[in-house]
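Known limitations

Structure tokens in this collection are predictions and should be treated as such. Users comparing against experimental data should check residue numbering before alignment. To illustrate the layout, the record for Alkaline phosphodiesterase I / Nucleotide pyrophosphatase is reproduced below. The input appears on top and the generated tokens appear beneath it.
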Amino acid sequence: MPATAGVPSTTATSLTSLGTGAPPGAHGVLGYTTRIPGTASLLNALRWNKEVDPTVWQARPTAFSRLAAAGVRTTVVNKREFEGSGLTVASCRGAEFVGVDRSGERIVAVREAAGTAPSLTYSYDGDLDWTGHRYGVDSEQWQAQLSMTDLAAERLREDLPDDVRLLVVADHGMVDVGPDDRTDLDQVPELQDGLALVAGEARFRHLYCRSGAVEDVVATWQAVLGDHALVLTREEAVGRGWFGAVLPGLEQRLGEVVVACRGTHAVLSTSTFPLEGRLVGMHGSLTPVEMRIPVLIA
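Generated tokens:
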């Protein structure tokens, strides 16, 4: 049974939608990196910034907190390093956190948490995503990791009581971006004209413009990228419903210009985001491969 990820199709945005039951425009985690309004700084939603309170940035009660208030035991089973992180607080607060670092730990922790009724237990496994970024989704490594992930899900199903349902869902898809399908804006000076900050990620860019530069930025990026990307103003993207209904005040987190790459193209900024140049698999944009996600119930 397929479902559709939100926009952008990226981990922090999708996990916050999963944890809150709200679209990106309502919860406010609108990309991998976005500008902190009123500043010249970016919020990295995976690593977070200490000066940003996650309960303010994402102020909605999570589904976990609402269920806990209704008497449901809610548990998050995730890597120990994620306990208390900004993204965990933004997306999963209200649940008991159980730290695990190995698949065996995860299986036992989920089984124990699910032994209470009623309960909701959430667990995240990022190994398949990491492998795709490093080697690409067409690689033998990714195929092998997919098999391992599938086996882990089967083993978990075997360990769970019969009256417990297991739901497996992805946060996004991924495309492989070859070396000839990349535009590095650091190598194209005209793409830097009128920009104050570049954010998002290589498949979905937020562009924050200097005063009065939006029209020129749109025209330049459209001319340079052509059919490789859809370049819209913030208002156009919001009007198309990309982020769901955007709550008042949250629109300032979006770039004045947003760039959604088509096909398998990517727009890098190797000086600002040097890691991007080393990735093979990428995501974030609107293609079906990135947005259509499986939902498996066992």
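For this record: The chain has two domains: 2-174+291-297, 182-282. The chain has eleven helices and 16 strands. Please report discrepancies through the issue tracker.
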